[in-house]
Amino acid sequence: MGVDHLAGDRAIPYARLETLFTDDRHPLGERVLWRLLYETAARAEEILSLDVEDLDPEFRRARVTSKGGTLEYVHWATATARLLPRLLQGRQAGPVFLADRRAPASGRRAPAAADICLITGRGRLSYPRHQNPAHGGVHCPR
User: Fold this and answer.
1) What percentage of the chain carries pLDDT values higher than 70?
2) Which end of the chain is more exposed for a tag (fewer CB within 10 A), N or C?
């Protein structure tokens, strides 16, 4: 009797992940985010906190602040290196990952100025928003 997964193993087979990463039915931003999370093994908060200035495309790495506050580098592979320029579309500053909607300009829900893209007016995609598509986040298919 063949067993595909050990009891308790929740790992998604790589072939299934690759299908997800390359499926054009999902927005580019989602695919880049999923790929970066997979390739770097970084926490979602570390990747979602990235600014364009933190990226070092030449060496395929980004500077992140770890949970303990230490500056570290995460590294990505070729596929992400090819996708990032398409996602950034020439942006030189601001958040790498943006919510689908423009950020509120005032009020208690207005993000800090550093969390708004000056070109698009869209706010940084946050972890709670990433989890909830109804609030400008993304949907992770199962």
Assistant:
1) 83
2) N
Tokens of 30: 């989602």
Average of per-residue pLDDT across 25-34: 94
DSSP per residue, 5-32 = S-TT--PPPHHHHHHHHH-TTS-HHHHH
For residue 18, the tally of other CB atoms under 10 A from its CB is 13
Distant-in-sequence contacts of 56-63, Cβ < 8 A, 24+ apart: 57/81, 57/84, 57/85
**For 9-30, what is the mean pLDDT?**
88
Measured distance CA(62)–CA(74) in Å, rounded = 5
CA distance 89 to 71: 26
